[in-house]
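User: Could you go from structure to sequence for me? I need the amino acid at each position, not a summary. Structure tokens:
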């Protein structure tokens, strides 16, 4: 635990695409001082470190001993080897998703954080989407959720399939919002361009009766990141790519309006469009202004949890839960031909 007034000394392990973003955001965050970058690609890490004014290391063993926090953005197969010694030293870590290459490794990481009595955060950045933050404030009880996360083939993150690469974001969101264990699932998909699954679609049934349909692809022509939530209080549609959200709820004249609408023919209904959408129903855009971008918000939230000595917003337990569900879906995909 550190004092809230002192700038935290932070490092980033892994300076590929995502780790470089972490480093640049930390460099601009007033809560911290970026002191070191680690990557075995010596020329790359030295060039970025020179640009950002910090120390370059080719191995974690070269990190200074007085760190307050570390971001780990390396392939998931390396997460446990890098994170466990740091956590056991009591250094808070934010580990990019998925938390580990397997549930057993993820649980070992959790155990190390407990031994070190320190914070462990997982980089499920979509929790910090402005639209999701607004939806959480509404306290809606989800009964049905539909997610589409599609991307063109990028030749990145090929150490895992699309379930652990892309779908796991939505799995974490759904598990967090529904708040109930998965009772059953039905999955379809498989490899299109690689040996692992590039397309996956799953229907989740929860113990509390909620349902979710989730589709992810990394072999699509156009990107799409859409999230729709239905509850007894209304319907929310979010487009993460456009940072846009829309909510539809019952309006002040719902009861009398739906009675009157039963007796109108199509021509009459067409003339009542404004009344229907403003009084019988209330359709409004979500106000997403003034909210930080997701990765900036995620890293700032992690730093605040370290300063204040409290649990991060996305905990290690959350990471294990999402990983376990992703593993369950992949096992279902492998059990059937594609």
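Assistant: Here is the amino acid at each position, in order:
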């Amino acid at each position: 635990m550190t004092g809230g007034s002192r700038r935290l000394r932070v490092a980033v392990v892994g300076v590929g695409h995502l780790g470089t973003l972490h480093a640049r955001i930390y460099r601009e965050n007033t809560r911290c001082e970026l002191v070191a970058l680690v990557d075995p690609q010596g020329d790359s890490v030295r060039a970025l470190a020179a640009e950002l004014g910090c120390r370059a290391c080719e191995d974690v063993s070269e990190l200074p001993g007085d760190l307050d926090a570390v971001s780990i953005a390396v392939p998931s197969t390396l997460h446990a080897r890098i994170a466990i010694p740091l956590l056991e030293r009591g250094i808070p870590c934010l580990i990019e998703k998925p938390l580990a290459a397997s549930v057993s490794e993820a649980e070992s990481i959790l155990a190390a954080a407990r031994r070190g009595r320190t914070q462990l955060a997982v980089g499920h950045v979509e929790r910090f989407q402005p639209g999701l933050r607004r939806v959480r404030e509404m306290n809606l009880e989800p009964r049905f959720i539909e997610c589409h996360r599609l991307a063109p083939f990028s030749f990145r993150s090929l150490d895992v399939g699309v379930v652990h690469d892309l779908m796991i974001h939505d799995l974490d969101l759904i598990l967090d919002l529904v708040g109930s264990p998965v009772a059953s699932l039905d999955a379809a998909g498989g490899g299109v361009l690689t040996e692992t699954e590039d397309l996956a679609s799953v229907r989740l049934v929860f113990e509390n009766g909620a349902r979710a349909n989730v589709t992810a692809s990394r072999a699509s022509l156009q990107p799409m990141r859409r999230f729709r939530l239905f509850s007894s209080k209304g319907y929310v549609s979010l487009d993460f790519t456009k940072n846009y959200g829309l909510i539809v709820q019952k309006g002040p004249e719902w009861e009398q309006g739906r009675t009157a609408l039963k007796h109108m023919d199509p021509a009459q209904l067409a003339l009542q469009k404004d009344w229907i959408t403003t009084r019988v129903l209330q359709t409004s855009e979500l106000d997403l202004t003034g909210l930080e971008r997701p990765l900036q918000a995620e890293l700032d939230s992690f730093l605040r949890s370290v300063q204040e000595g409290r649990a991060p917003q996305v905990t290690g337990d959350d990471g294990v839960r999402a990983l376990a569900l992703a593993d369950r879906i992949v096992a279902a995909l492998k059990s059937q031909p594609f």
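One structural detail worth keeping in mind: The chain has eleven helices and 14 strands.
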